[in-house]
Write a structure and sequence with these properties.
The protein has about 375 residues and is of the alpha/beta class. The chain contains 10 helices and 16 strands. It has helices at about 1-20, 130-135, 170-185, 205-215, 250-260, 265, 275-285, 290-305, 345-350, 350-374; strands spanning about 20-25, 25-30, 35-40, 50, 55-60, 65, 80-90, 90-100, 105-110, 120-125, 150-155, 195, 220-230, 240-245, 320, 330-340. The strands form 4 sheets. The chain has a 6-stranded mixed beta sheet, sandwiched between helices. Strand 11, helix 3 (about 170-185) and strand 12 (about 195) form a beta-alpha-beta unit. Helix 3 packs across helix 10 (about 350-374) and helix 8 crosses helix 10. It binds zinc ion. Zinc ion (ZN) binds near residues 163 and 226.
């Protein structure tokens, strides 16, 4: 009798192990002009297989289960993805993604970090017909006229990288893009200027790629739009940063530097600084001194305009070693429009009229800077 009971328990435990499934926690899709990114939150040891055929991608997982609350997130459509189907074959779950364009597949995994508790599988479906550099030209701007000054407007964060999150759950990436879009629209009303966005939607652009876009567009000015965040809910006001290779001049700048420069981990880049040589070339640029002076002057002009519409956190331009400010020889500034960590300021940042006022002030700062140059 004892023997049979033991055997019964052995059977039960092996059965239980067989049922020990790995969980797929969530599914997110981000549409960019040249690719669609699929992100799947999974367990560390989840076994997966990714294959691309003529017009579909199959991502399969062994012994996996999907949480009921995230099940509907699987089904997504955009200009590339016609439909997504899910198929169970014995213990395997297959995600079948139907693609409407010729594509190339790329995938990598990301370990958890301070912002993401899950392991992530990232699958990029990249257009193979159009060259990436051509595809990203001027999503929101009219064709360039001769002698126009081209200004790259960089909306910080995007896609997997939300940036800071306000007390009322506003995401910095959305606020940045809203202000950046308004700024581009205002700038493009001026026939001497032509503004270009580094991202035109909710997707992630690696930091060094933002610089490459500026270079490809022959931009003569680089303005990155962000919102500040600290532990305290009372901090308020705008700050404008310029690049300092030596690093920052304040504790806040140092914290910011760290948080801004590691966003590639959140946004999803295989290696954090993906093109070190590119950065080194920039750092040895001859016109660096000139760029520093110009950036400082541009920052001053923007601060004096922002001062007219709201509180200022730092009245003089701050220095920090931000990757996005390393454009060669062109004035580059990073504007922290307000503190999203302060609920009153968060309200202001998400208000369309206030966003317009902020954009208008940055624009006026740009115009005054150019007038000083003439
Ligand atoms: Zn930011």
């Amino acid at each position: 009798m004892r023997y049979w009971i033991n055997l019964f328990f052995i059977f039960l435990t092996t059965f239980a192990y067989g049922e020990d499934k790995t969980t797929l926690y969530d599914f997110r899709y981000w549409s960019a002009p040249d690719h669609t990114r699929i992100v799947i939150d999974k367990e560390e040891d989840t076994l997966f297989n990714i294959r691309g055929y003529d017009n579909h991608v199959v991502i399969s997982f062994d012994d996996a289960e999907v949480l009921s609350e995230t099940f509907s997130n699987i089904f997504f459509k955009d200009s590339r993805i016609q439909k997504v189907r899910i198929k169970r074959e014995k213990s395997t779950i297959k995600l079948i993604v139907h693609i409407s364009k010729k594509f190339k597949l790329k995938h990598f995994t990301l370990d958890p970090n301070t912002k993401y508790k899950h392991h992530r599988l990232v699958v990029d479906i990249v257009d193979s017909e159009v060259k990436v550099a051509k595809k990203i030209t001027k999503p929101d701007s009219p064709p360039s006229i001769r002698n126009q000054k081209i200004i790259l407007i960089d909306a910080g964060h995007g896609g997997e990288d939300s940036g800071a999150i306000g007390k009322n759950k506003s995401l910095e990436k959305n606020v940045n893009l809203a202000i950046a879009r308004k700024l581009v629209a205002i700038i493009n009303q001026n026939k001497d200027l032509n503004a270009v966005l580094s991202r035109s939607g909710d997707y992630y652009v690696p930091l060094t790629k933002r610089l490459t876009i500026a270079q490809n567009q022959k931009a003569t000015m680089f303005i990155s739009i962000h919102a500040d965040s600290v532990e305290s809910i009372n901090a308020k006001g705008a700050s404008v940063y310029t690049l300092s290779e030596k690093g920052n001049n304040s504790k806040l700048a140092r914290q910011l530097e760290e948080s801004q420069n590691v966003v590639d981990q959140f946004g999803g880049v295989e290696t954090v600084i993906d093109n070190d040589q590119f950065l080194k070339n920039i750092l040895t640029d001859y016109s660096r001194k000139d760029r520093e002076k110009q950036s400082f002057e541009l920052a001053q002009e923007i601060i004096s305009q922002l001062e007219k519409i709201g509180p200022i956190h730092k009245k003089i331009p701050q220095k920090a070693n931000f990757v996005v400010l390393k454009s060669p020889s062109i004035p580059s500034v990073l504007v922290e429009t307000a503190f999203i960590s302060n609920p009153t300021q968060e309200k202001r940042l998400t208000n369309k009229r206030q966003q317009q006022k902020i954009a208008q002030s940055i624009y006026q700062g740009i115009v005054n800077y150019y007038q000083e140059l003439d």
